[in-house]
Design a protein that fits this description.
2 copies of one chain form a homodimer.
Chain A lengths: L24 E6 H7 L14 E7 L4 E3 L7 E7 L2 E6 L5 E7 L4 E2 L12 E4 L3 E7 H10 L3 H24 L3 H18 L6 E3 L4 H8 L3 H13 L3 E4 L2 E4 L2 H8 L6 H13 L18 H13 L4
Antiparallel strand pairs in A: 1-2, 2-9, 3-8, 4-7, 4-9, 5-6, 5-8, 10-12, 11-12
Helix pairs in contact in A: 4-6, 4-7, 5-6, 8-9
Chain A binds a DNA duplex through α6.
Protein name (chains A, B): CRP/FNR family transcriptional regulator
GO molecular function (chains A, B): DNA binding; DNA-binding transcription factor activity
Keywords (chains A, B): DNA-binding, Transcription, Transcription regulation
Chain lengths: ~300, ~300
DNA sequence: CGAGCAATTGACCATAGTCAAGACTAGTGG
DNA sequence: CCACTAGTCTTGACTATGGTCAATTGCTCG
């Protein structure tokens, strides 16, 4: 599985990653920090300084909570990133999504009182914890909190919908293209570069998230790279041709239709193409992808 | 695709049953009806009688709201059922989920102020509408409302997660088995029979929801029927062997492991077992569906 | 009754899952 | 410091699964 980094005491069990430091650590954080994190104006609910919140710290591969546990808190990512996973009865680990700064975790368990999925840190992370039992009084005492929580949960719901949209695509390359664009948007939303970023999750996690085999993720990455959309070095991704990537991502069914349309359209315009990296022509093995090659070539993305 | 049915202006299409009646119709409904629908005790917030709510009526195939529209209300299904759909840029219609009585719709648009997906009635339906601008004051004035809304939105989020779990399965039969079980649970939750029910959506919708071709849904239904799990007559479904169905549904990867495990297990309790006889030292590379047949046979599900 | 859509089934073959092997990296302990 | 393990990542080969096209049947509703 994943390389286990025990964060504190040597626990003899290698399978379990959670040491003592994953328990709550109370630091001088308060509700006002949360309101700020969620984008509230600086001084709304100034009394919110007086409501202390726990800041939870996690090391890589440590679980924030496990599937099936009672829900005591909902969490907001303060730094770092996590994945949400559900383990099927047969032991298969399905990745439901990834969370970064500002994202809400654990809310899906509120209705049943139990977490339907686990959350695991992809890197060292810190999270603000709000006890569910406090939710009611918080909404009463701090008028800004209710709408912000609503907004956050609504955003989660929207994100999940988009995740479903990823899986709708039939072809693996399209799924991956959509995934890359999704990550790119998120990075931008967090103030980072949308063009070049570092993936925090391994191929297996991406594969599970996209519903394909991890070998297929590898292959699809090289495909996208060959077409001149991306440059990939392990987890480092650079988007070279966002337009082409978008085009690929926008085709749910196959690659064929797009390639034809695109090739036809671009046969008219045809600007001078910039050269990314001229690689020896690889023989495309299938009819469908042959089209993409032509499309890409006619776009000037590949010389 | 689906015939687009505008629910406002009289469209000249004679074949379609949707006319003016899909616009808002204010009937004597109030917040107390909503609280009741969501499972609150009968007399909490008795003043809620005084807060009127719009009841929206939809005919089959009419849209509750369209993707991209401004969010004015969130809705709670009072009767009937709907599907949530997202139309990709290439025109492909992706079904995100289905909603029945008590389910919340439109909440995912609250964060951005625009609906990220459409909602379309699968049959004549009625919905209670709550204007988003009222949410804040409602939560202030009616203490029971906030938690109920929270619970409803949390449930939606959980459901979405389960939907993602459907797509995780590689084999089409497994996806369909999970879908059927999901529907069964929902029917039961709504007080109907979990064993025998009527699907409100067509094969295409199921297919889109599961991320497979609609022909594959047909084939998978006949497969499950052949294995003795189900009886299917068009949209009428009867579960014959829930245990086997569960078994099939619980295998994310292939059908292989399950069939073997199951055959082995039942070989113990069933001394006649000739099933797990001389298994070749190495598992046959892809045993395929033959295994299921044997497993089913050894279970006595198929004569 | 006919038009149109839903559902099923068959044939074909491209895509992607599976197994296998090798390259590379990071963490561990001698 | 260097193996040594254990993980990730990539690539190749093979083939089952499922997407696509096509034809048929059945259902519903004018």
């Amino acid at each position: 599985m994943y390389s286990i980094v025990t964060d504190t005491v040597a626990d003899a069990m290698p399978g379990r990653a959670n040491g003592l430091q994953d328990v709550n650590i109370h630091l001088p954080y308060s509700l006002s920090d949360l309101l700020g994190l969620l984008g509230a104006a600086p001084h709304v609910d100034s009394a919110s300084n007086g409501f202390p919140l726990a800041m939870r710290q996690l090391r890589t591969d440590a679980a924030l909570f496990h599937e099936g546990e009672m829900v005591e808190c909902i969490y907001f990512v303060y730094s770092g990133s996590l994945k949400r996973v559900r383990t099927a009865e047969d032991g298969y680990e399905q990745v439901l999504g990834f969370a970064g700064r500002g994202d809400l975790l654990g809310y899906d368990g509120v209705c049943m009182g139990r977490h339907p999925s686990s959350a695991v840190a992809l890197e060292d992370a810190r999270l603000l914890a709000v006890q569910t039992q406090d939710l009611r009084s918080l909404m009463g005492s701090f008028p800004a909190f209710g709408p912000l929580l609503q907004k956050a949960s609504s955003l989660e719901l929207q994100r999940q919908g988009e995740s479903l949209g990823l899986m709708a695509a039939v072809s693996a390359e399209v799924r991956l293209a959509r995934f890359v664009l999704q990550m790119s948007e998120r990075m931008q939303a967090m103030g980072q570069s949308a063009r070049r970023f570092h993936l925090r999750m391994c191929r297996r996690d991406i594969a599970s998230y996209l519903g394909v085999a991890h070998e297929t993720v590898s292959r699809s990455f090289t495909m996208l790279a060959d077409w001149g959309c991306l440059q990939v070095d392990n987890r480092e991704v650079e988007i070279l041709d966002a337009a082409l990537l978008q085009q690929i991502a926008s085709n749910t069914r196959g690659l064929l239709d797009m390639a034809l349309d695109r090739a036809r359209a671009s046969a008219v315009e045809r600007p001078q193409g910039r050269v990314s990296d001229s690689r020896p022509a690889r023989r495309p093995r299938t009819a469908g992808r042959e089209q993409i090659w032509r499309a890409a070539a006619s776009l000037g993305s590949v010389s």
